[in-house]
Structure to design on (522 residues):
């Protein structure tokens, strides 16, 4: 019998290289071409753009599925339908997974579930964010309950990781069923215009069940989810821009809930004043202004990153920096519906407040709101339980909380928007602040409903009453005199006031009553 020749190191490395080539081929040239023709990148190309150059370390590249029914024995690809691993973004560690649409449509299989679970467990152990690049048709039909169970594992892990490490979902293809539920559980969802879609059931199923006819873009395109459903927090024009935005978002987030958010060397002076703020509020209380101008002027130059820009535009939320430190901004937008608070605005603000609180990001609130939106539709759709989320979220938040009342803080809007006694550390008011149960006109109408002041001949008397209310409540001094407002400040000095207060509160410690968890109205 011929003696077995020992293999050379060279042969062994060649064998490894052949394996690597097979792994990197994904679902094969034909499917990669289709992916490119659809304007989409491959999972590996996406990872290259997302991560710092050369930092990606792959895990579980050889694993294959173990199913053989429905022709699955011939459909084994090393690594299956997802690439998992870890790497760096701006030098900071992250765990990642990228679904490979060229392998069985990126369908969620038993082994995709195992791989994603392992990388999420590593992210939790290491205390680093996890980023999912999603491009998947949903549960792998051929694997039946194995696929469904794998999804259940993922959803459980998303829930366990919530509030411990930031979880980001980047949507880069037609994502259906379970492949949208996991993103729905994560902190931030980014979508690519034109090529990413999210839906529980697609147009065909909808047509069968409800007879509604709808195209993919209208049903679950990027603008639908960023402007209508609120599922998506960010959109970008193409995949490179979406991945670049993901890198930018991460620069505001701490790696885990025990770390502060990453600070940068301040380049904008802390004591910078801006005289334009002194005249930004129109003298006519019915005229609007752009609250974004206020935020951008107060925050470090070019530091404002708006979240949920197109959803519930009557509210504004986003990250910014003050003297290099990350802060969460929550505000009304007087340009849209006069900054009134409705159901969508409530959900948008409450969720953002809770993210910031979970991840040690101080909250800065700018208030200009006439109150909650009146109307049968809002009442019947549950404005009571939705609006309650804002006050719940602010009340349970223990991070430093600072409020600036720029103009109207009427009724419920005054209370819920981080007022003093829901434990806001400092409440500042601009001289233009109006803190009252409601506007002067409304107050006179209610209090003097039956008096001649309502008649045409009572116009003069009514004017006098309105002026009396305005004198008392359309200025912040009554609220300041009773301690409901900590200081009345010149708008130009808002930045330095906020920075000084944040510095004081940097190590703020607050204890909450022991409980398993609260029961936020959902
Ligand atoms: C396995 C699937 C698949 C599935 C599609 N494929 N759906 N493989 N399981 N669920 C395969 C296709 O046969 C094809 O294989 C490849 O994936 C790409 O699919 P295409 O249809 O060619 O892609 P495209 O034209 O881009 O259309 C994408 C799509 C469509 C719109 C998503 O594939 C589709 O509607 N799929 C069904 C989606 C769905 O209902 N998923 C189950 C959800 S239920 P080849 O070999 O040709 O490349 C679920 C359970 C959990 O997820 C629910 C929790 C809420």
């Amino acid at each position: 019998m011929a003696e077995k020749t020992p293999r050379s190191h060279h042969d062994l490395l060649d064998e490894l290289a052949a394996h690597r080539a097979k792994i990197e081929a994904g679902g094969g040239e034909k499917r990669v071409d289709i992916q490119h023709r659809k304007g989409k990148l491959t999972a590996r190309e996406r990872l290259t753009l997302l991560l710092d150059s050369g930092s990606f370390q792959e895990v579980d590249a050889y694993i294959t599925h173990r199913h053989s029914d429905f022709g699955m024995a011939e459909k084994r690809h090393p690594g299956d339908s997802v690439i998992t691993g870890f790497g760096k973004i701006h030098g900071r560690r992250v765990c990642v997974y990228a679904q490979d649409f060229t392998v069985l449509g990126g369908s969620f299989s038993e082994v995709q579930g195992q791989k994603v679970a392992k990388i999420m467990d590593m992210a939790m152990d290491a205390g680093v964010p996890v980023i999912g690049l999603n491009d998947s048709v949903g549960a792998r039909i051929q694997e039946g309950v194995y696929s469904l169970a794998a999804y259940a594992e993922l959803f459980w892990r998303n829930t366990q990781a919530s509030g411990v490490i930031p979880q980001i979902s980047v949507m880069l293809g037609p994502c259906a069923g379970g492949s949208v539920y996991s993103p729905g559980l994560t902190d931030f969802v980014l979508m690519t215009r034109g090529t990413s879609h999210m839906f529980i059931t697609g147009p065909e199923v909808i047509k069968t069940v409800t007879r509604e006819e709808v195209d993919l873009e209208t049903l679950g395109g990027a603008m639908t989810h960023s402007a209508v459903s609120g599922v998506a927090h960010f959109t970008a024009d193409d995949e490179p821009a979406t991945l670049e935005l993901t890198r930018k978002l991460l620069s505001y987030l701490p790696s885990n809930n025990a770390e502060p958010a990453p600070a940068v060397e301040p380049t904008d002076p802390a004591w910078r004043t801006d005289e334009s703020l002194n005249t930004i509020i129109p003298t006519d209380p019915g005229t609007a202004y752009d609250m974004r101008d206020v935020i951008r002027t107060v925050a470090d130059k070019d530091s404002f990153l708006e979240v949920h820009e197109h959803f519930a535009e009557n509210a504004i939320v986003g990250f910014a920096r003050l003297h290099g430190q990350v802060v969460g901004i929550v505000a009304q937008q007087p340009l849209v519906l006069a900054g009134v608070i409705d159901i969508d605005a409530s959900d948008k603000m409450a969720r953002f407040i809770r993210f910031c609180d979970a991840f040690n990001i101080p909250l800065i609130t700018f208030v200009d709101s006439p109150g909650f939106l009146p109307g049968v539709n809002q009442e019947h759709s549950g404005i009571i339980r939705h609006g309650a989320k804002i006050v719940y979220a602010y009340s349970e938040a223990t991070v430093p909380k600072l409020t600036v009342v720029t103009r109207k803080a009427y009724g419920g809007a005054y209370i819920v928007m981080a007022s003093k006694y829901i434990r806001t550390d400092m409440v500042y008011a601009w001289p233009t602040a109006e803190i009252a149960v409601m506007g002067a006109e409304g107050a006179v109408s209610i209090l003097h409903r039956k008096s001649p002041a309502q008649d045409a001949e009572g116009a003069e008397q009514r004017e006098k009453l309105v002026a009396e209310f305005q004198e008392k409540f359309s200025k912040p001094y009554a609220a300041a005199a009773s301690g409901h407002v900590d200081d009345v400040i010149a708008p130009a000095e808002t930045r330095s006031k906020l920075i000084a207060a944040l510095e004081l509160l940097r190590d703020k410690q607050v204890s909450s009553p022991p409980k398993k968890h609260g029961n936020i109205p959902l």
In short: The mean pLDDT is 94. The longest helix spans residues 110-126. The chain has two domains: 24-250, 275-433+475-507.
